[in-house]
Design goal:
Blueprint (H helix, E strand, L loop, with lengths): L1 E2 L2 E2 L2 H24 L6 H19 L1 H6 L3 H16 L2 E8 L4 H12 L5 E4 L5 H12 L3 E4 L6 H4 L3 H19 L6 E2 L9 H6 L3 H11 L3 E2 L4 E2 L10 H12 L4 E7 L5 H16 L2 E3 L14
Parallel strand pairs: 3-4, 3-9, 3-10, 4-5, 6-7, 8-9
Antiparallel strand pairs: 1-2
Helix pairs in contact: 1-2, 5-6, 5-12, 11-12
Organism: Clostridium oryzae
Keywords: Hydrolase, Membrane, Transmembrane, Transmembrane helix
EC number: 3.5.1.-
Length: about 300
């Protein structure tokens, strides 16, 4: 590039900038030199300032050659940390295991996601295999009562306790590992059907009893509604989950893996991939990490 009779290239430009900085240095130095009656501390401060200015001048060439990719990488890393750890989804599956559990586990493996299975006591050959596979894959088994029979478990506190203990013993015998000390009440802690069998105070009394047994319990704040009928459409399940997760930082998602729930399986991959894109990480339920409860 030519300006008048002088030809500028990159080197000339750098020299020009350095010259400007030198002029600035001289001006600032002159300003700092005013007032020779300053104390020794002030003189030392002037010396430090002058040295800092000289370092700036000397570093012009280095700044011009700095690889800015390091700054871009830092920005990406910071953004990823903030976004992905701010929201957590807990996939929970009730009433299994069944023939659908194996398919669900395959999807979880594919997306490197773990889930919590609130199981009942199933004695068929496939279910016995699934209890083991759930744990082998690093997922979690929670207690959903052995029988899931409302008229039995909600008739009395002793009945409920027996059913919880029966499932614990059954799973531990099959897998060598007891379910976690977190349960999900059949129908949720605010269900109304229990009143028919145990009276209007049965659920409040059971909540107290569960705590005495050393358990906590979890309900949900996102309902796929896959239990609202024997089978609902895949589209409805996916839309329900994604719409209810939209404004939540903690999403405990209710789904089912009993035998009829084929559309739940069909929609699971889309649910997981969509939630990941929205910044959700996935975790399993434990004794302390979530307190989503209808009835306190």
């Amino acid at each position: 590039m030519k300006i008048g009779h002088m030809q500028f290239n990159l080197n000339n430009l750098i020299k020009f900038l350095i010259g400007c900085n030198l002029v600035m240095f001289l001006v600032v130095g002159a300003m700092l030199g005013v007032g020779n009656k300053d104390s020794n501390a002030e003189a030392s401060k002037k010396h430090t300032n002058s040295a800092a200015i000289m370092n700036i001048v000397k570093s012009n060439d280095v700044i011009g050659k700095t690889d800015t990719s390091m700054f871009k990488s830092a920005v990406k890393l910071t953004t990823a940390k903030v976004d992905k750890k701010s929201k957590t989804a807990f996939l929970t599956f009730d009433d299994g295991p069944s023939i659908n559990t194996d398919k669900i586990l395959a999807i979880l493996r594919k997306y490197h996601v773990k889930a919590t299975f609130f199981v009942n006591g199933h004695t068929d050959k496939n279910s016995k295999k699934m209890y083991k596979l759930i744990l082998k894959d690093g997922n979690v088994i929670g207690n959903h009562t052995y029988s899931h029979e409302y008229k039995y478990v909600y008739k009395s506190i002793p009945n409920f306790k027996k059913d919880i203990i029966k499932l614990n013993d059954y799973v531990e015998k099959l897998t060598g590992k007891e379910p976690i000390k977190v349960l999900r009440f059949p129908g949720g802690s605010n269900n109304r059907v229990s009143i028919r069998y145990g009276g209007k105070h049965i659920m409040k009394n059971l909540v107290k009893q569960v705590k005495k047994m050393g358990y906590s319990y979890v309900d949900w704040n996102v309902d796929s509604e896959d239990a609202s009928a024997v089978m609902i459409s895949k589209k409805r399940i996916v839309n329900n989950v994604l719409s209810e997760c939209k404004w939540k930082k903690t999403a405990v998602i209710l789904m089912h893996d009993s035998a009829p729930k084929k559309t739940t399986v069909a929609g699971l991959a889309q649910i997981i991939s969509s939630l990941k894109k929205k910044g959700f990480r996935f975790d399993t339920i434990d004794h302390m990490n979530t307190k989503i409860q209808f009835l306190k």
